[in-house]
Amino acid sequence: MTDTTILFLAKEAIKLTIFIAAPFLITALVVGLVISIFQAVTQIQEMTLTFVPKILALILVFFLTLPWMLKKLINFTENLILNIPNFIK
């Protein structure tokens, strides 16, 4: 296994991690921003107001993106397993 192969695998793994985490991070950011604006406008400073909508939004995103995430992970794993003979050369 060469240095180039290791760097390629690491790059692909990091890229996959970013692709899978992006919907969750973007959703949490948008929901948090909307709730912060709502709290600033209404001057309601309730802690549960920030957590409950974020959790519900992230659960919704999880169920909506689950098939896509599984497909990405399965493709990465299949490619990794199928290329084992090329890696050990």
Task: Label this structure with key terms.
89 residues; mainly alpha; 89% helix
Report what the structure shows.
By secondary structure, the protein is mainly α. The protein has one domain (3-87). Helices cover 89% and strands 0% of the residues. It has helices spanning 3-42, 48-82, 84-87. Helix 1 packs antiparallel against helix 2. The model has no long low-confidence stretch (mean pLDDT 92).
Summarize the structure.
With 89 residues, the chain is an all-alpha fold.
Low-pLDDT runs of 5+ residues are none
Order of helices and strands: HHH
Query: What is the typical, i.e. mean, pLDDT?
Result: 92
Rg: 19 Å
Number of strands: 0
Strand portion, in percent? under 5%
Q: Report the major sheet.
A: none
C-alpha termini separation = 6 Å
Structural class: mainly alpha
- As an assembly, this protein is single chain
Q: Please, how many helices?
A: 3
Shape: elongated
Topology:
Blueprint: H1 3-42, H2 48-82, H3 84-87
